[in-house]
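pinging the channel bc i need a second pair of eyes. not urgent but kinda urgent?? the chain im working w is below, pasted from the shared doc
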Amino acid sequence: MKYRQVIVPAAVGIFALTAVAFGPLVSGVSLESEPAPVITNEGELTIESVTFPTEVTVSSGSYGAANAYLRVPPATVRFDSITGNPTLVYELRIDQLNYSFSSSHFLDAGDHGPTYDATVAPMSVDDSRFEKQRYPGVLTIGVRNSTGLRVAASRNITVRVAE
């Protein structure tokens, strides 16, 4: 019985000390992990060249699913210079279907060499929308920084629907 008289006040005391020691009253001490870095888009990226794929494919989903997958091969971007933390944007537009897919790549001047393969993850699309075997599309590489989005390169491509 006596142990309850000791344990309860000790537990409350430990809780209170922890709350005071690591709470908002004491700055600089935290039990949390480091916060994620803030994406500022501050920096500049000068692109020397972009090598786009020649076509994009739409292929059936597995096991007779009613959807298909749009697969965009990587675009190889060769940098002339990179400073700070600009964002590289890789976009596919298929205007006839009113589709637009993009992927943002958060760059850091110290992390990348002179080339970078920009990718777009495969996207699930409704295969009933594809009535033709080919559609015109546009691939675009853009640079987003603190002043906005600038298109660096663009190419017309064919979107091929595989059977």
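so Residues 1-34 form one domain. and The chain is about 15% helix and 55% strand. — does that match what u expected or am i reading it wrong
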